[in-house]
Amino acid sequence: MESNNKGQILLPIARASIADALGRPLLANEDAIWLQDNAACFVTLTQEGQLRGCIGTLEAYRSLLEDVKANARSAAFHDPRFSPLKSKELNYTEIEVSLLSPTQALEFSNEQEALIQLQPGIDGVVFEFGRYRSTFLPQVWEQLPDSKEFMAHLKQKAGLLPDFWSDQVRLYRYSVSKWKEHDIEELPA
Questions:
Q1: What is this structure's pTM?
Q2: Residues 6+ away with beta carbon under 8 Å from 21
Q3: Which stretch of DSSP H or E encloses residue 18?
């Protein structure tokens, strides 16, 4: 299936899931067979270009249909950085769905080697150290184009100091296919 067509199906499902939780039911086509395949996605909400919520799954453990619906509701109502979305906000909230590839472990012996391997604008990155874990989607490179700065913010997001490093750090990369509502023409109702 053409990539754009997936966006034309996934975006209305995400919006309908949020609208339904707000008591404003919307219909969305959920018949595509590939929606039953296990997949991992993130749903990002923005208002006037500013982040309003972003929640996702790093590993595919449920159907894409379930994942996009659950992550849309979580981004709208359970992102701890924001208050729950109100019904009146939905009309001016833009939705983006990012479908993740499987993660790939990076091999390195120090932070410099790790930074050299990162592909700005392409790689989503998962940072792990013990119980500390964080991720940035590839889209975050738009705000943090420098690999060292990107990594410092990723460590801070995990709850560590920006200059923290340990031989126990693990990094994984992934790519995404993404769709924003304003980029998809003639979304089905």
A1: 0.89
A2: 73, 76, 77
A3: helix 3-21
Q: Which residues contact 121 (CB under 8 A, 6 or more apart)?
A: 138, 141, 142, 145
List residues bridging with 177 in a β-sheet: 99
CB 151 within 8 A of CB 108: no
pLDDT in tens, the chain (189 residues): 455 689 999 999 999 999 999 999 999 999 999 999 999 999 999 999 999 999 999 999 999 999 999 999 999 999 999 999 999 999 999 999 999 999 999 999 999 999 999 999 999 999 999 999 999 999 999 999 999 999 999 999 999 999 999 999 999 999 999 999 988 754 444
Q: How far apart are CA 25 and CA 104, in angstroms?
A: 39
CA distances from 165 to 31, 75, 109, 126, 160 (A): 47, 30, 11, 15, 9
| DSSP code, position 31 | -
Query: Mind giving me the DSSP string for 95-150?
Result: EEEEEEPPPEE---SSHHHHHHH--TTT-EEEEEETTEEEEE-GGGGGT--SHHHH
**Cα(71)–Cα(73) distance, rounded to whole angstroms?**
5
